[in-house]
Amino acid sequence: MRQFRDLCTVPPERLQDIQDEFERSMEAGLRGDEAGLDMLPTFHRPAAVRVRGYEQGSYYAIDLGGTNFRVLHVELPFGRPIPAECFDTDSGLLLEFVADCIDLMLQLHPPGGDGVPVIGFCFSFGVQQTALDNGALVRWTKGFYGSGLLGKNIVAELEDTFKRRGKRVRIPAILNDTAATLVALRFRDPQTEVGVILGTGTNAAYRERVRSIRTLPGGYAARSERMVVNTEWGDFWSDVLPALAGVDDAIDARSVNPGRGRFEKLVSGHYMGEIVRLMLLQLARLGGALGGARARARARRGALASAAVTAVDDAAEGDHAAVDAALGALGVERPSHRQRQLLREAAQLGTSRVAVAVDGSVYCKYRGYRGLMADALRDVLGEDSAALVELREVKDGSVLGAAYLAAACDAYERTHTVSG
């Protein structure tokens, strides 16, 4: 356990090294260097198509993430788990499932006006955009696999799915969940500059000077000074990151995208339970932490859910319910005090390597991350500068931001059509 503790501890000077490496990777991505982060332009220019906070009308938003698919009609959201068969994108079932859910929402809340629903599309995967409503899928993450839809315009593909059903929808904007979270908070606070997600996956978007984005199409005419950039920071990797020997490499090797999303695999909710399980298995081989071969056999891959890990770390000292439930999932039926303490420490180490988010299940449901994030900001920025950074939770920010931007695009297009 001492070795794990040393590997997971990130002192202030190492945080500074990580920050320097990350900035270099961002700058390389903005130049278009392959060694850098993707740094994908979103073509959302807040000064051109601005969410002003007083848009009116009937709008819809959809949010395709790593766990659930959600449809929103201004006030009444509902969500459904994404069926397992849809994660195989070669099956062709994913967009059919999306269309089924939208159809249900349209039956519950029919569109007004000309009867054509206006939908903002929050798509939590990297897309190479050439316009606000045109984005080609770069790669799948969060457990999706296959070549289905890779390189294709997701907006056009979804609109075609509806055309085959004899229906018409209008999707004026596709945006990542991080960009949508940024938009959602700017709806209430125009000073918002960054949107961050830590849930099933992790990513960030921020407002960048257009002149710094060298990957925009030749001859692109900027209508505003800044554009939202999707960093795709889940792909960030550097030797200065606090990797666990024998744990993180194993998770990467067994994933559906080996070699990609290494940072995401260190910190996101999708992998947290597996990180702690592998830590405990290593301890078991050394000192019988799980109480014998039978228990170790039951501690198979996927046995420990990420939600169970955060529940353990959130549990008060002396409250054994969450701890015993997690150990039970690993095959330990009558845990000892030592086993409970080992699990508590493993859970704390597995969740403390990084803490960054303003939306997402890990940030919103696991209160320990908020304090860790505040501590890390003070370590990197210093007390005075950290005090100028306000972290604000944006509940349902991804899907709300998509709806707000759809409304802003619709208002912009109507105004310019009339005035033109």
Automatic annotation (TrEMBL):
One of its GO terms (biological process) is glucose metabolic process. Gene3D superfamilies: 3.30.420.40, 3.40.367.20. One of its GO terms (cellular component) is mitochondrion. Keywords: ATP-binding, Glycolysis, Kinase, Nucleotide-binding, Transferase. InterPro entries: ATPase_NBD (IPR043129), Hexokinase (IPR001312), Hexokinase_C (IPR022673), Hexokinase_N (IPR022672). Residues 2-186 form the Hexokinase N-terminal domain. Pathway: Carbohydrate metabolism; hexose metabolism; Carbohydrate degradation; glycolysis; D-glyceraldehyde 3-phosphate and glycerone phosphate from D-glucose: step 1/4. It comes from the Eukaryota. This is Phosphotransferase. It comes from Prototheca wickerhamii.
